[in-house]
């Protein structure tokens, strides 16, 4: 009988900020999206004050009742490193840990005698080592583990732990929970079910399986089985094939000059190429998009273009191709707000024929290796194509970013000797 | 990850005239990241401010390697959170329990309990001083 667990960080980004700043331990904390746009993570205290998910910062900061809130720009360098520590502190104790997202991991709890005791230990361990408070839910399937985790989060009296392995306990919860609590069901499917008068998860589980399959295809049928306690989803490998690699960001200020936009696209292409090489992949399809801000009252313009390219991971090639695609998209006189590069048709380097290659792959490989090595050693952007910008004026605003405490020696946490 | 670039790939091995007798004996540079186990999930670097712990050889601007998984030892040095502030100080233990020991005679020791805003954040394990 397998036992799946799901452990996730409570308001993970906010907890990362608190880890190095004990003075905000009890304060309402909110982390803002790229460009200090809107709230993406809130502590319980901030939620209680009425800060909504996705609420624009420029509106919030004017509200007098939110004057005590501590705001942060997103600091993904820090969150990524604490996610690593979170994962490792679990991996030291468990046979299998699957990082599902930056702040939640599936864990294999099969075969342990005292699962509740183990989970309590894991929580305190992650708290101690990675400084992140967590909740853990577990059950006989991944879907039930996810559900148990949601219950643990909502019901603080459970002390961060929820066990759905027992059938009777499960039944009690499923009777009380709405179907939109189910992981992976989706809004549209919930609407379909609501039309049929299906409200609770118990209602959904009671539907005839063939009926569910007709209505929600095989995915719905699998979810129903999982909710009944029959495991259909096993642990995924980390090396799942990526479908695409994207670098898309809104700017810290509007871009109006062609020269700047060219710099933006070259910079994004450089970053996308780095991501590509880090995965050992090459791309055979490239698309570029630019658009203005739909909500600012500026004249709206949005356009994109894609093209099949010779499979490559070479920064220079990708920059040239991106600029070629960008040229016809560019229209003078608009106030551009966001741009992006998306790489598709990804393949491994090994299974490609170089028969029709128009450039020297070996030379390109050597050059890229040197570029990546130097940047790994001396910091990102040490060596870069001259068409890119290192500290661009169009870069994202992050006026309230905390120090990168764990990855930059000149930003490590300070402690006063006493 | 290869850490070579440009002309820094001579390691006492590839010579142009006489073959180097050392070519089968080349080893890597000592890596303090390994020595200080900085990749462990519980290891953090902390910058010291102030000279209060000078008597322990810990000075302003030193870097402490702290371990958040390590159990404290009486007489050791810890990073503690006290009333919302990060401190570096000695830790002691007596019949009343664990306490943070002040360096200055006029400060009172801080006993760690549920009821006060003081906790151990990590235990100091090594010390790095960039400039002697």
From TrEMBL, chain A:
Every UmuC domain range: 4-186
One GO CC annotation: cytosol
Keywords: DNA damage, DNA repair, SOS mutagenesis, SOS response
UniProt entry tagged with the keyword Iron: no
Annotated EC: 2.7.7.7
Keyword Iron-sulfur attached: no
Gene Ontology molecular function: any one: DNA-directed DNA polymerase activity
BP terms from Gene Ontology: DNA repair; error-prone translesion synthesis; SOS response
Class of enzymatic activity (EC top level): transferase
InterPro entries membership: DNA/RNA_pol_sf (IPR043502), DNA_pol_Y-fam_little_finger (IPR017961), DNA_polymerase-Y (IPR050116), DUF4113 (IPR025188), Rev_trsase/Diguanyl_cyclase (IPR043128), UmuC (IPR001126)
Function, in words: Poorly processive, error-prone DNA polymerase involved in untargeted mutagenesis. Copies undamaged DNA at stalled replication forks, which arise in vivo from mismatched or misaligned primer ends. These misaligned primers can be extended by PolIV. Exhibits no 3'-5' exonuclease (proofreading) activity. May be involved in translesional synthesis, in conjunction with the beta clamp from PolIII.
Subunit structure: Monomer.
Name of the protein described by the UniProt record: DNA-directed DNA polymerase
Organism: Aristophania vespae
Automatic annotation (TrEMBL), chain B:
InterPro entries, alphabetized: LexA-like, LexA/Signal_pep-like_sf, Peptidase_S24_S26A/B/C
One Pfam family named in its UniProt record: Peptidase_S24
Parts of the chain that traverse the membrane: none
Residue ranges occupied by any Peptidase S24/S26A/S26B/S26C domain in the UniProt entry: 13-103
Classification via CDD domains: S24_LexA-like (cd06529)
The name this protein goes by in its record: S24 family peptidase
Species annotation: Aristophania vespae
């Amino acid at each position: 009988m397998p036992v799946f667990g799901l452990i996730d960080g409570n308001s993970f980004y906010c907890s990362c900020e608190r880890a190095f700043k004990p003075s905000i331990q009890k304060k309402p904390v909110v982390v803002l999206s790229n460009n200090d746009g809107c709230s993406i993570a809130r502590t319980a205290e901030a939620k209680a004050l009425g800060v909504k998910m996705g609420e624009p910062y420029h509106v919030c900061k004017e509200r007098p009742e939110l004057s005590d809130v501590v705001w942060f720009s997103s600091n993904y360098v820090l969150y990524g490193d604490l996610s690593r520590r979170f994962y490792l502190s679990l991996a030291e104790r468990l046979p299998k840990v699957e990082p599902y997202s930056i702040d939640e991991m599936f864990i294999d709890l099969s075969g342990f005698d005292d699962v509740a005791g183990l989970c309590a230990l894991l929580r305190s361990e992650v708290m101690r080592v990675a400084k992140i408070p967590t909740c853990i839910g577990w059950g006989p399937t991944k879907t039930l583990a996810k559900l148990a985790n949601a219950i643990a989060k909502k019901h603080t009296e459970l002390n961060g732990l929820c066990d759905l392995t027992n059938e009777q306990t499960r039944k009690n919860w499923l009777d009380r929970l709405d179907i939109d609590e189910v992981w992976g069901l989706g809004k549209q499917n919930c609407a379909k079910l609501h039309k049929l008068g299906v409200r609770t998860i118990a209602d959904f589980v009671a539907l005839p399986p063939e009926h569910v399959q007709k209505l929600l295809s095989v995915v719905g049928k699998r979810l129903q089985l999982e909710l009944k306690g029959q495991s259909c989803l096993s642990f995924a490998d980390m090396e799942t094939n990526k479908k695409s690699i994207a670098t898309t960001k809104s700017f810290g200020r509007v871009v109006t000059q062609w020269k700047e936009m060219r710099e933006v696209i070259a910079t994004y292409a450089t970053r996308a190429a780095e991501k590509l090489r880090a995965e050992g992949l090459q791309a055979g399809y490239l698309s570029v998009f630019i658009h203005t801000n739909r909500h600012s009252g500026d004249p709206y313009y949005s356009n994109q273009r894609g093209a099949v390219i010779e499979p490559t991971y070479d920064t220079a090639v990708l920059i040239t191709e991106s600029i070629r695609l960008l040229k016809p998209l560019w229209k003078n006189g608009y106030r551009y707000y966001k741009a992006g590069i998306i790489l598709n048709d990804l393949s491994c380097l090994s299974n490609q024929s170089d028969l029709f290659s128009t450039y020297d792959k070996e030379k390109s490989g050597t050059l890229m290796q040197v570029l990546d090595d130097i940047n790994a050693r001396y910091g990102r952007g040490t060596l870069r194509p001259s068409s890119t910008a290192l500290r661009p004026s169009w870069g994202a605003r992050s006026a309230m970013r905390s120090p990168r405490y764990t990855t930059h020696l000149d930003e490590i946490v300070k402690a006063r000797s006493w | 990850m290869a850490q070579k670039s440009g002309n820094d790939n001579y390691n006492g091995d590839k010579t142009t005239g006489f073959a180097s007798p050392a070519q089968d004996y080349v080893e890597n540079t000592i890596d303090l990241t390994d020595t200080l186990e900085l990749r462990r999930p519980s290891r953090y670097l902390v910058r010291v401010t102030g000279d209060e712990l000078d008597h322990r050889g810990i000075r302003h601007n030193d870097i402490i390697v702290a371990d958040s998984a390590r159990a404290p030892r009486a007489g050791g040095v810890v990073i503690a959170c006290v009333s919302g502030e990060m401190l570096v100080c000695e830790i002691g233990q007596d019949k009343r329990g664990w306490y943070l020991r002040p360096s200055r005679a006029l400060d009172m020791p801080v006993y760690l309990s549920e009821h006060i805003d003081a906790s151990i954040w990590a235990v100091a394990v090594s010390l790095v001083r960039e400039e002697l």
